[in-house]
Amino acid sequence: xxxxxxxxxxxxxxxxxxxxxxxxxxxxxxxxxxxxxxxxxxxxxxxxxxxxxxxxxxxxxxxxxxxxxxxxxxxxxxxxxxxxxxxxxxxxxxxxxxxxxxxxxxxxxxxxxxxxx
Length: 117
Fold this sequence. Notes:
By secondary structure, the protein is mostly helical. Helix content is 50%, strand content 9%. The protein has helices spanning 19-26, 51-69, 74-81, 85-92, 100-114; strands at 5-9, 12-16.
């Protein structure tokens, strides 16, 4: 295996790979579109975000992004986590906050999926 070439842009180092290799790496993974993620709530007058709603959105975005990267549907992740698909759907829409046990189940299932288990 050859050493990849790198380029420095905006203070960050990036690997340069042939386009065919890049496409092969992305095959089957649909990038998450910002429009598919729940929006952040409007900031309050003092510029801060409402804490509970902002936390729900951050959690939802993390789950959606990781689920997509692991190539899991909502139903697949819910099954692996041992929760109802409806519950996962409400969490991903930032309608509810998961309790600690549910969040642990979801993130454990995502960790296992990312490791290929």
